[in-house]
Design brief:
The chain has 457 residues and is of the alpha/beta class. It has 14 helices and 17 strands. It has two domains: 234 residues, 3-Layer(aba) Sandwich (Aldehyde Dehydrogenase, Chain A, domain 1); 175 residues, Aldehyde Dehydrogenase, Chain A, domain 2 (3-Layer(aba) Sandwich), CATH 3.40.309. The longest helix has 20 residues. It starts with 17 loop residues before the first strand and ends with a strand. The mean pLDDT is 92.
Length: 457
């Protein structure tokens, strides 16, 4: 399987040429795709009905077994991923390894069945007609004849999970991989070929340049799942014909809330883990933290403790390294500007002695949300967490990491759930490790994709 130049595509049933392209200086072998070839691949997948006839148990077993193999650091495909993903993404190898551990542990056979049961009640509606729970008659759920997955590159693993969701509802899928990271989803599809070639033939994983977005085979696609910035999402939305279902995941951000009872050094160390994983580049990254006054640590003392924790965690989870000099220069300049803005507004800046590795900004009052930093956060004080602080974009709030006593937590969570778009509360230290059954963006992961058919006997 191991080649000098890794293969960053997986296509069955259609002959494609290959060429080597450099991504952030890393050469990868990709499929030579044009609009006609892509249309041929889409047509072949949409006309393949074998997946619809495949028992759901066989689909789950194959996906679960593939994920089980990826859990082993000695698995050949995983070794390629761990070697090349740090060069492609800028994340350190320990961050990549911990992320892969979480991803494939969550994609276990048992968790896949739990997800199906959680969303469908009776998952066998994907196989055959099943009795309805309340109404008379029977029902079936059909996955799309063809799904298109357009993947963002900020968090490795998004494409793998999206592809698995498509296959779970028996939908042949085309995955357009991220512009800067086309490898991981392709490696997963290749490894699926080793376990279940009949299932893997229903997935085509490819990369093509962003300016070739017009190649998207939307005219024959039934569902488009798109990840990326709000601007990117709008580009895809305008392309879709009437009747094509659009499931999109745009820009979101997360925050942390620390009750006075948990304003401790231990909580600061846990929050440092949430910041270190993916270096604040994902929707689950905490960009702002409110610390309640009156705790063992004052809000500013908590910020100092968090700075110490970020300094210490560098040894276990080294921080992001920009893949090329131009990006490194931009990041350094951006971080310096944000630090200056905080100081000029009366705040305090705690920063790494090694430059732009990490930043903790403390401001005693709630100020406008500063631009996102790489491994950086704004800490503010609040007298009472039940009183919502000012949020710049409350509807875009994704998750809240919360450290609060059990007797207070429900009241705090109710206030934020009612006034914002938050869809996940979790303990501090677990923000970057969502369970498979999490309602991403507050929606179901599978039933959003299917078409229900009723049989009124």
């Amino acid at each position: 399987m191991r080649e000098t130049t890794p293969q960053a595509y997986s296509v069955s049933g259609v002959v494609v040429g290959t060429r080597v392209v450099e991504f952030n200086g890393v050469p990868l072998r990709i499929a030579m795709i044009d609009s006609k070839r892509l249309a041929l691949i889409a047509s072949r997948l949409r006309g393949a009905f074998a997946l619809r006839q495949m028992p759901l148990a066989d689909v789950v077993d194959a996906l679960g077994e593939t994920a089980r193999r990826w859990q082993s650091p000695s698995f050949a495909f995983r070794q390629v991923a761990e070697e090349y993903l740090p060069k492609l993404t800028g994340y350190s190898r320990p961050v990549i390894a911990r992320g892969l551990d979480h991803l494939f542990n969550e994609l276990s056979r048992d968790n896949l069945w739990a997800l199906l049961e959680e969303e469908f009640g009776d998952p066998l509606v994907l196989d055959t007609w099943r009795p309805r729970r309340r109404a008379r008659g029977k029902v079936r759920a059909f996955g799309p004849p063809l799904s298109l997955h357009v993947i963002a590159g900020n968090i490795p693993g998004i494409g793998v999970q999206s592809l698995i969701f498509g296959l779970l509802v028996k939908s042949p899928s085309i995955v357009k991989t991220a512009s800067d990271e086309p490898l991981l989803t392709a490696l997963f599809a290749q490894s699926l070929h080793e376990v279940a070639p009949a299932l893997a033939q229903n997935a085509a994983v490819m990369w093509w340049a962003g300016e070739e977005t017009v190649w998207l085979p939307v005219e024959v696609t039934d569902v488009v799942m798109a990840y990326g910035s709000n601007e990117t999402i709008e580009v895809y939305r305008k392309m879709l014909p009437a009747g094509c279902r659009f499931v999109n995941y745009g820009h979101r951000y997360s925050i942390a809330l620390i009750a006075r009872e948990y304003a401790t050094e231990k909580t600061a160390r846990l929050l440092a883990i949430d910041m270190a994983m993916y270096d604040q580049q994902g929707c689950l990254s905490p960009h702002q933290c409110w610390v309640e006054e009156g705790g063992a640590l004052s809000p500013q003392a908590f910020a100092e403790s968090l700075a110490d924790a970020l300094d210490a965690i560098e040894a276990d989870l080294p921080s992001y390294r920009a893949p090329h000099k131009r990006m490194k220069s931009f990041i350094t300049k951006h971080i310096q500007e944000v630090r200056t803005v905080c100081e000029m507004s009366g705040g305090t800046v705690y920063k790494s002695a090694q430059g732009a590795i990490w930043t903790v900004l403390f401001h005693p009052t709630v100020i406008a949300q500063l631009p996102a930093l790489f491994r950086g956060i704004l800490v503010s004080s609040v007298s009472n967490l039940e009183e919502l602080p000012h949020l710049e974009s409350p509807d875009a709030l994704q998750a809240i990491g919360i450290a609060a006593p059990p007797e207070r937590a429900p009241t705090i969570m109710d206030a934020y759930a009612a006034a914002t778009g938050v869809n996940r509360f979790c303990p501090i230290g677990k923000m970057q490790f969502p369970p498979l059954l999490w309602h991403h963006d507050g929606r179901p992961n599978l039933t959003d994709l299917v078409r229900w058919v009723d049989w009124e006997e």
